[in-house]
Amino acid sequence: MKLLVAALDSELVAFPEDLPGFERLVTGPGKLKATFALTRALDAGTYDEILVLGTAGALDESVASGVHEINWTFQHDVINEEGVRGEHVSMPQRMDLGDGDMVIATGDSFIDDADAVQLILALGGRLVDMESYAYAWVAAQFGVPIRIWKAVSDRAQDDANTTWTEAVTACSHQLRERLRDEYGI
Q1: Cα–Cα–Cα angle for 97, 42, 86, nearest 5°?
Q2: Where residue 164 falls among pLDDT bands split at 50, 70, 90?
Q3: Distance CA 125, CA 52 (A)
Q4: How confident is the model at residue 40 (pLDDT cuts 50, 70, 90)?
Q5: What's the CA gap between 126 and 15, in Å, rounded?
Q6: Bridge partners for 44 per DSSP
Q7: Average pLDDT, integer, range 161-173
Q8: Which of 90, 108, 113, 179 has the fewest Cβ atoms nearer than 10 Å?
Q9: How far is CA 75 from the centre of its chain?
């Protein structure tokens, strides 16, 4: 059995409630809710794989619209004891998920301004969301393989929140098509 995970119900509007071979988990937005909900699910059940689906803002102009598989993730909203942004005082700096350069920066705020985008780009982030790092860290603690797919919903600039609201349904359909292509369901 696999676990299909999303932060919000709206990210799964294109998916049937029952998907063969998958159980569904909606965690709520942000790192704490993601950590809590996924930890509870993995503590209660056994899964062969976690597949996270959701939306992300594109920071890097070279990132095309569509669905991207995440290769590694880091927290953009932490600072270590030496004042280094993007490094936590006790957590791994990054969570590696596979080979490649699709990097998502995770933080607990919605990014929608140019200054924040420049800071995160300087740290290596190409996409931005609010949960990926948490999901990857929890999966590693339980030793469960994880894949994270993110559909580009906006460009993380001014008014990105409005754009995301309008784009989430289209993103859900893109993610559903990718699941159909890769898993045949």
Answers
A1: 40
A2: low
A3: 18
A4: very high
A5: 27
A6: none
A7: 79
A8: 90
A9: 11
Q: Which two tokens stand for residue 19?
A: 């998907």
> Can you tell me which residue has the tokens 């932060």?
7
The structure tokens listed for 159 are 């008014």
CA distance 9 to 121: 29
Residue with tokens 């369901």: 185
Three-state secondary structure string covering the chain = CEEEEECCHHHHCCCCCCECCEEEEECCCCHHHHHHHHHHHHHHCCCCEEEEEEEEEECCCCCCCCEEECCEEEECCCECCCCCECCCCCCCCEEECCCCCCEEEECCCCCCCHHHHHHHHHHCCCEEECCHHHHHHHHHHHCCCEEEEEEEEECCCCCHHHHHHHHHHHHHHHHHHHHHHHHCC
| 31: its two tokens | 């790192």
d(CA 106, CA 149): 14
Structure tokens, 86: 């993007």
